[in-house]
Amino acid sequence: MASVMVKVKQKQIAQLIAHGKRLDGREPNDYRPIKIEVGVIEKAEGSARVKIGNTEVLVGTKVDVGEPFPDTPEEGVLTVNAELVPLASPSFETGPPDENSIELARIVDRGIRESKAIATEELCLEPGKKVIIVFIDVYVLNHDGNLIDASALAALAAIMNTKMPKYEIVNGEVKKKPGYIPLPIRNYPVPATFAKINGKMIVDPWLEEEQVMDARLTMTFDKDGNICAIQKGGIGHFTVQQILDAAKIGQQKSADIRKLVVKE
Amino acid sequence: MASVMVKVKQKQIAQLIAHGKRLDGREPNDYRPIKIEVGVIEKAEGSARVKIGNTEVLVGTKVDVGEPFPDTPEEGVLTVNAELVPLASPSFETGPPDENSIELARIVDRGIRESKAIATEELCLEPGKKVIIVFIDVYVLNHDGNLIDASALAALAAIMNTKMPKYEIVNGEVKKKPGYIPLPIRNYPVPATFAKINGKMIVDPWLEEEQVMDARLTMTFDKDGNICAIQKGGIGHFTVQQILDAAKIGQQKSADIRKLVVKE
Amino acid sequence: MASVMVKVKQKQIAQLIAHGKRLDGREPNDYRPIKIEVGVIEKAEGSARVKIGNTEVLVGTKVDVGEPFPDTPEEGVLTVNAELVPLASPSFETGPPDENSIELARIVDRGIRESKAIATEELCLEPGKKVIIVFIDVYVLNHDGNLIDASALAALAAIMNTKMPKYEIVNGEVKKKPGYIPLPIRNYPVPATFAKINGKMIVDPWLEEEQVMDARLTMTFDKDGNICAIQKGGIGHFTVQQILDAAKIGQQKSADIRKLVVKE
Amino acid sequence: MPAKAQEKQKLIDKEGKRIDGRNPDELRPIKIEVGVLSNADGSAYIEQGKCKILAGVYGPRETHPKHLALPDRALLQCRYHMAPFSVEERKSPAPSRREIELSKVIREALEPAVFLEYYPRTSIDLFIEVLQADGGTRGAAITMASLALADAGIPMKDLVVACAAGKVEGKLVLDLSDAEDKLGEADLPVAYMPTIDAVTLLQMDGNLTLEEFEQTVNMALNGCKQIYKIQKEALKAKYVALKEVAEE
Amino acid sequence: MPAKAQEKQKLIDKEGKRIDGRNPDELRPIKIEVGVLSNADGSAYIEQGKCKILAGVYGPRETHPKHLALPDRALLQCRYHMAPFSVEERKSPAPSRREIELSKVIREALEPAVFLEYYPRTSIDLFIEVLQADGGTRGAAITMASLALADAGIPMKDLVVACAAGKVEGKLVLDLSDAEDKLGEADLPVAYMPTIDAVTLLQMDGNLTLEEFEQTVNMALNGCKQIYKIQKEALKAKYVALKEVAEE
Amino acid sequence: MPAKAQEKQKLIDKEGKRIDGRNPDELRPIKIEVGVLSNADGSAYIEQGKCKILAGVYGPRETHPKHLALPDRALLQCRYHMAPFSVEERKSPAPSRREIELSKVIREALEPAVFLEYYPRTSIDLFIEVLQADGGTRGAAITMASLALADAGIPMKDLVVACAAGKVEGKLVLDLSDAEDKLGEADLPVAYMPTIDAVTLLQMDGNLTLEEFEQTVNMALNGCKQIYKIQKEALKAKYVALKEVAEE
After folding, report:
1. Domain containing residue F30
2. Dihedrals φ, ψ of F187, to 5°?
């Protein structure tokens, strides 16, 4: 019975979208309400909780000192990890990260890395030996669709909220000096995610829409409106025109959302 | 059929205990015979085999040099690991440690650590850099109930039996000097474990009793009769009075058993 | 139906072998055609692809610098790993190495190690601290029987093909100098593998023969015709005489095959 | 920080006040919310001192994997898990031995309260996420988790409430903070069902005489009774809110 | 190598030629073979620049483990895996996060082409082994994997072909090599079914204006169309060879 | 210890005696007990030199997981495992590659002896625990494990007995100790069923001419025959003891 009701609802969602309407009353290019709180975890160096509708993501950052990668000896290290914790959805399971959480982490990582949001070259303490490592942990608390945008937004807000200790090298050993400084932030990447349902494109799909979508497209834009990362997902396809149209709409959406985080 | 016989036996155990009797003829506060042998594994730095009735546990210790924990830079490291090897019981499986072996290891660890049985501050070779690590490996060879007491007793006997190399630091490198010295032992923690069956408390449950018990309570006492660690287990509960009574009985039992290990 | 046909074929193989014949027309002591190509992976320090009939194995080597084992502080490190990648056979699965791939890697390792094929004492850069590590990765691409001989032969060809950087120690740090030198190769171990089917011994079993064999025997011979490693496999047994006979035949087969790799 | 430096810090001042200003028998501020997640069948959130913990309950639902299903009652599963950013040094997301032990003792603290026999062959899955850790996470987790179970409509004999007491610089104190737990002489967490005098969790680390032990247990039970009131209010608040929504 | 030293290396010379001598819109040499493994139901091998990649397909076959089987269509499984010796620094055989992500996006690039509904409850298992890595492995892998699927007799709407374009030293270029990928400003791989105008994979790393983005997508699609011809020839070659064998 | 220092140590003295005083063809002292564990269906314990090894057998019992069950015979499973404290440097409890290989070859050494076809669909599980390792653990393990199988009442064609021989400082010797195994020139373990002339395990590390090989195999077989007597006595002792208990 449940499954019949689900199918009826799914058909309804698809039919509405064919007419440019959505089950929750939104227009195709409308986001759900977005709420951002920062500094919610005092023990983290930075943190932010983002809600997009009922989707809720908490991001915490930790700062530590470690070794650089051999091919970038003068740059700090950025590590993004995502956990789809099982209280967030009946479909999430315990265990090591699956392909969905790994893909989510890598999309968030790519937006920050490719836009050069964190000036990693300022996080070197001793070239080839000691650099600052920034851990960005994405914790999904409630899954109601569009985890990518919520996670990337929370990650951006969390790194902007991050304060790191002042370090110095004394006789080859790393010491903390008194006081904290903000992470050096140079760019503000914000993604916009589209779903294709019944041949039409909508932004910010919620869970019920994700369950009927053919394919998903996330484009991340930097503060100048340039594209810095893209990820297509899902088992359907897009036409070339749909992609080019999405880029234009995404650029605008991303600019609107960026204003919620970056106050001028 | 087997299962019916099991149920009959379980009922019998529970009924006897209601009358202050036990299937194997013991009084509620009697332990099974305890047998302790030390030095049974020559390649280990220390070892002991303990039998409580048919329950048999072998503990071996190894001593090595490594790094201290960052928050205790001037103390040696104590590591307790327990393996419920599958020859010991049809219910034990191969694979990484499960919650039962982890709990067992942590109870043994807690007794030794909280009573300060090993003077870890004497195991520092170079503050923050090199300390002595003591590995205590609990190997359960036959499971006939009350693994906690058998394991903790074997661990105590094994650390008392442990001889460690003499180390010195020469030009920043650790060298072994000739000869061995005993581990610095300062206390002698001994647990007493209770089972609650049919509303009554008994000590040292054997396997058949564990299979019908509601809950388990382990109290570890140090050489002065003070409590240094407690662990409740099982899906039942205790009344407050049962706990306070158990503490008094446990203190006495623990003192009696300690005499088997600590000869004065 | 398939299973019935398989059984008919298996019976046929066994009956033919009882009469000294094989389903593919070979004599009991004939190998299938062997084809060896080296240098097939430019990014590897050495590589070789070996085909024995339809069995195909690719071996690549990588050279790196690391720490020696504590008990051989003046010797380089040799590491052999084998992957039965799932495109090679419907019976291979993804996941960590199973007992078959571990056994395969250890047989290949043993032949190279026990014959002292690589002069590991020439791979020491700084005793106890820095030595050269040689990784030999066996990649099985198509499984049509006798993986051991194909893998060991490919490994031998690959180490003979390996060029390693020239290293030097400057102020305690390892530096690469310009140019490459060959790995120091001192011996040429080549195995010969037998299968026992229906009481008879054959060499180089192909897949259909492996599926009916009782037991497997691999003997590895060095360049002087001495035995340097043996491994019996399978759930059957050999008589003592079968083993002694196999040693004589294996010595000859191994010498013949060695000529395909070691050109004089 | 080396042990020596730490010893200089006084945890209890001359007036008997603790470093956070509390009296020895005073709880940390507690804030509980019930029904905070939209997907879980039941959920709750607690802040106790700096502890911030969230729990979600799914079930009774089909047991997965099936062979774990019990013929005569529901399977209660519990995962206690800490966010990587919840502690000073980043914690690896893989479950630590401590988390595995706590998952077990928390499950065993809650199991005596739940009428599992009502739902044979099903599974009730409790997920506890520590977003920020402080002293007493296991107690706060139990207090809050029993509300999440209630919020999921799981019938229970009583709410389970938990609280620790312990010894710090020779004084018995209630509801230890992180510093008191680490530097103090004993920490004794208790979980309790007040209406049926049932202790469902009891652990201890440290050193107590038999007499001190009895006093500490009683102090912890007093803490439990205070928190029990807060628990009930939080549950009531949720249903009052629901009622208001329904009547609007 | 530190970033500064790298910047000195010019990737595009004054005549607009790339370091390997190619023009901006020129593909690397491509060699494809179909049906190269005797055990797999379908297989293919590609060399594109220094990329050397092999794929095998098993299926449709029984799904293992069974509970993964889908009632209405085949389960397409894909593992993208790199040999330890395929890259400069030896890669551990355990799957990396990158390999797990690529397995997913490659599967999602191929899935739109396959008539999975023809084989309910079965599994089609695609194993991609990168024997040597260079820029553009995911594209080469998709191009070749769709041939391995065809070789296994799996019915498809169209072959899927893939190619990347990107930006290097301010110039848009086709089919990036390793150095161009690492040191360039953008890399944009596209997978495409030419006969039905379907983009089935789209990713990007780097920085492009909206205008550049459109040009880069079109350049990549042009690359796809060229490779599509090579794909079809490789498939034809296999079946001509088979026919010759049959007629001998 | 560096190789050079080791070479100075003479393993065989002028009189042809080995470092532990044995003659070249002399076994280490062997002590075997059968039926030492109360839970296992069969068990045995061996001390051979410094080797101390314990085995337990469970079965024939239900196969777990079920899909491993074989329709026409029992599944023989074997785990060879070393205690962390059994060797000089503490061994991690996780199974090493060596332990996985030995589990396989030991199983294949015992399997030819067991009438597995009597117990289709069941599992016979053999657990070998090395409490202290010395040279020749695999041989001692097989010798003792076949007694544990017999103690469990599993019907067998013959007991399997195992022993190694090898070459040390140019001399052929029987039953190598740890030092002889590590510093010698060859180690050749053999497992054997004497009454049916069946070699069920054969491995070798080192360097032997064909002539030496034949001599070493024969020396190992002689060792096997001696140990076979000890095996039978140990089995008899168990049943005499049982008989005495029964008659008391």
Report:
1. 22-247
2. -135, 125
D11 within domain boundaries: no
Q: Which residues of E touch A232 (CB under 8 A)?
A: 105, 108, 199-203
ipTM associated with this complex: 0.94
E86 touches chain C (CB under 8 A): yes
Contact C258, C157 (CB under 8 A): no
Rounded Cα distance, F95 and F91, in Å: 9
Cα–Cα distance measured from residue F199 to residue F231, given in angstroms and rounded to the nearest whole number: 17
Residue of A nearest to E191 (CA): A237
Q: F226 vs E22, F38, F52, F192, F229, CA distance in Å?
A: 76, 29, 19, 12, 6
User: Is A20 exposed, middle or buried (CB count within 10 Å of its CB: 0-12, 13-18, 19+)?
Assistant: exposed
Which portions of chain D are predicted below pLDDT 50?
A: 1-7
Name the token pair of D149. 């179970």
Distances, alpha carbon E16 to alpha carbons A58, D121, E26, E223, in Å: 48, 71, 12, 19
Q: Which residues of chain C have pLDDT under 70?
A: 1-3, 264
Contact between chains at D199 and B239 (C-beta distance less than 8 A)? yes
**Rounded-to-integer distance, Cα A207 and Cα C93, Å:** 34
**Does a structural domain hold residue F129?**
yes
**Interface contact flag, E108 A235, Cβ < 8 Å:** yes
Please, which residues have CB within 8 angstroms of residue F117's CB and are 6 or more apart in sequence? Answer: F72, F73, F74
Domain boundaries, given as residue ranges, for chain A: 27-261
Please write the tens of the pLDDT for every residue from B150-207. 999 999 999 999 999 999 988 888 899 999 999 999 999 999 999 999 999 999 999 9
Return the beta strands (E) in E67-185 as ranges.
75-82, 122-132, 161-168, 171-174
- pTM given for the model: 0.95
Q: Does D179 touch chain B (CB under 8 A)?
A: no
pLDDT tens-digit series, residues B220-245: 999 999 999 999 999 999 999 999 99
Q: Are D163 and D188 in contact (CB under 8 A)?
A: no
Q: What is the CATH number of the domain that holds F89?
A: 3.30.230.70
CB contact under 8 A, E131 and C61: no
**Helices C99-114 & F97-110, crossing angle to 10 degrees?**
100
Half-sphere exposure of B73 (CA within 13 A, CB side): 9
pLDDT at A84: 98
Total tally of structural domains belonging to chain D: 1
Task: Inspect the interface and report whether the beta carbons of E38 and C142 lie closer than 8 Å.
Answer: yes
Domain C27-261 has CATH 3.10.20.30: no
Neighboring chains of D (3 or more beta-carbon pairs < 8 A): A, B
HSE, side-chain direction, 13 A CA sphere, residue C237: 24
Q: How far apart are the first and last CA of chain D?
A: 56
Strand order in the sheet with E42-48: E30-34, E42-48, E51-62, E122-132, E75-82
Nearest to C83 by CA among C34, C8, C147: C147
pLDDT value of residue C171 = 84
Shortest Cα–Cα distance, F101 to chain C (Å): 6
Between chain B and chain F, the number of residue pairs with CB atoms below 8 A apart is 86
Tokens of B36: 């302790």
Using the Cβ of E214 and the Cβ atoms of chain A, whether some distance falls under 8 Å is answered with: yes
In a domain, D3, yes or no: no
Alpha helices in chain C (DSSP H): 2-18, 99-114, 147-161, 207-210, 240-261
List all residues 6 or more positions away from D239 whose beta carbon is below 8 Å from its beta carbon. none
Could you give the percent of chain A with pLDDT greater than 70?
98
Instruction: State the CB neighbour count (10 A cutoff) for residue B43.
Output: 19
Nearest-CB residue to D204 (from B75, B230, B248): B230
* D136 falls within a domain: yes
- Copy the structure tokens of residue E41: 């139901």
